Amino acid sequence: MKTQQTTISEVRLVYRTKVKASERLQVKCSKDAFDIFMENWNLDSTEHIEEFKLLLMNRSNSVLGILAVSKGGLSGQK
């Protein structure tokens, strides 16, 4: 029996912060998270384009960043 060999490339995700741990925003309640999202949202397009974003935090609820997962309108994703 012949064996087939497949070569697959490795993908690596690296996170390097430019913000000191002492300077990171901290989420203490849902209003804090809302305020952080609103600062990073384009309010001129919220009625026309649907966006899905993640607020990335560490175990002490310090904000590591915001990831834009998808963006689209009525006709589909962009």
Entry summary:
The chain has 78 residues and is of the alpha+beta class. The protein is 13% helix and 27% strand. A hairpin with a 5-residue loop joins β1 and β2 (63-73).
Low-confidence stretches: none
* Helix content estimate: 10-25%
Number of domains: 1
Mean pLDDT: 85
β-strand number:
3
Strand residue content: 25-35%
What is the number of helices? 1
| Overall shape | flat
Output the structural class.
alpha+beta
Largest sheet: 3 strands, antiparallel
End-to-end separation:
46 Å
- In sequence order, what are the helices and strands, one letter per element? HEEE
Main sheet: strand order = 1-2-3
Radius of gyration: 19 Å
Structure description:
The protein has one domain (about 20-75). It is about 15% helix and about 25% strand. It contains 1 helix and 3 strands, in the order H-E-E-E. A 3-stranded antiparallel β-sheet has the order 1-2-3, with no helix packed on it. Strand 1 and strand 2 (about 65-75) form a beta hairpin. The protein is flat. It starts with about 30 loop residues before the first helix and ends with a strand.
